[in-house]
Design brief:
By secondary structure, this protein is mainly alpha-helical. It has 3 helices and no strands.
């Protein structure tokens, strides 16, 4: 597992978990500060991983990358 793959997966997971938080804050009438910060961090992680990997990542490679990262932890 490459470090950039781990950063990519973490960025995607953080972004996915931040979206419901943003909607919940908007529904409650609160400013979604933490969720917006999490989305910015997730976007930065994804951009960093894509630009530091030679050739970048293809969308059809994402399931395999997720499996490799999860498998390395199990």
């Amino acid at each position: 597992m490459l470090a950039t793959e781990f950063i990519l997966v973490c960025g995607i997971v953080i972004g996915v978990f931040a979206v419901p938080s943003m909607f919940r804050a908007a529904i409650d009438g609160n400013p979604p500060r933490a969720a917006a910060f999490a989305i910015v961090v997730a976007g930065g992680m994804i951009v960093y991983a894509v630009y530091t990997t030679p050739g970048g990542f293809a969308v059809n490679e994402l399931p395999e990358i997720f499996a490799r990262v999860v498998k390395s932890f199990l």
